[in-house]
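Researcher: Quick test of sequence recovery. Tokens follow.
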């Protein structure tokens, strides 16, 4: 596209310029936001058992409302936070807030649900995240096996001592590892089982291909067969249609997540949702 048309070059440059500018101002805004305490919020998306269709866990997803009141997507600001190293501070904040919520949920309707958190490769390589997590769990009297840490395939491929130490420590203390966006990277299933991941999440792009006559269904079937042979649990993410749901249940997927079943919610809405599920 670079040399398309007469004005190809200038268009390209302008687009580059815009992206660069957006990146720089996002980074600055993010830095400012970390000086306030009220711009980041957590929402929670339920994950369902494939057989019973009951919610069994919650994935914690961060939200940012900037000082202009706009909601900025984590798909946009997490990469910026990673590039700038701000992810380390952001991650610590997020854990503060999460553990505050977990303590307030004690003996309530959310107490029985498992918790999954996203930890980026940069956090694993630059922060003592395992130690931090374990300390907080201990303080809050929350069993380590309630927690799952979602990492991407990049984390498995990165050769970094601190990252390895973090993953080993999490595993040794009974925190489950889940491979997020599975299928988009290059790691093999045998490698994943060596690293003692207990779960993988098939990337949304494959779920999207169900019923579209693509090879995605075959990839899902093969992934399920191999993962189950290796004792790895499989989550399908991004389930949006009844057709996808039916296929995934028929194929014996373990867990399901997606807009069809529940969207990410802030806590008040989540409480209503869980209460309504109990009444069914
Ligand atoms: P992810 O971990 O793959 O999270 C799943 C994303 O898919 C979430 O986007 C979720 O809202 C969205 N989603 C769930 N169900 C559906 C569906 O049925 N259809 C579609 N189209 N989307 C669905 P979100 O919340 O915008 O997060 C984007 C990414 O940002 C996450 O992808 C994760 O990589 C990252 N992220 C979010 N929160 C955190 C965090 O606290 N820490 C770190 N390190 N990364 C985070
Ligand atoms: Ca995730
Ligand atoms: Ca994912
Ligand atoms: Ca993702």
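Model:
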């Amino acid at each position: 596209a670079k040399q398309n048309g007469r004005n190809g070059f200038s268009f390209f440059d302008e687009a580059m310029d815009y992206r660069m500018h957006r990146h720089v101002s996002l980074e600055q805004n993010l830095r400012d936001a970390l000086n306030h305490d009220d711009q980041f919020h957590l929402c929670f998306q339920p994950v369902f058992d494939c057989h019973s269709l009951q919610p069994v866990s919650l994935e914690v997803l961060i939200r940012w409302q900037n000082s202009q009141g706009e909601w900025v997507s984590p798909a946009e600001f997490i990469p910026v936070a990673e590039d700038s190293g701000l992810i380390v501070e952001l991650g610590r904040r997020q854990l503060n807030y999460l553990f505050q919520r977990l303590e307030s949920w004690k003996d309530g309707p959310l107490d029985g649900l498992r918790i999954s958190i996203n930890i980026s490769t940069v956090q694993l390589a630059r922060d003592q995240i395992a130690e931090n997590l374990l300390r907080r769990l201990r303080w809050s009297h929350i069993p380590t096996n309630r927690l799952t840490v979602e990492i991407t395939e990049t984390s498995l491929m990165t050769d970094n001592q601190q990252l390895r130490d973090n993953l080993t420590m999490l595993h040794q203390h009974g925190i489950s590892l889940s491979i997020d966006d599975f299928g988009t990277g290059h790691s093999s299933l045998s490698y994943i089982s060596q690293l003692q991941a207990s779960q993988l999440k098939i990337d949304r792009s494959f779920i999207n291909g169900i019923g579209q006559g693509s090879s995605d269904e075959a990839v899902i079937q093969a992934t399920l067969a191999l993962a189950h042979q290796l004792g790895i649990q499989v989550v399908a993410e991004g389930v949006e249609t009844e057709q996808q749901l039916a296929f995934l249940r028929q194929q014996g997927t373990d867990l399901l997540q997606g807009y069809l079943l529940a969207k990410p919610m802030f806590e008040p809405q989540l409480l209503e949702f869980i209460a309504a599920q109990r009444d069914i």
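The CA atoms of residues 103 and 140 lie 7 Å apart.
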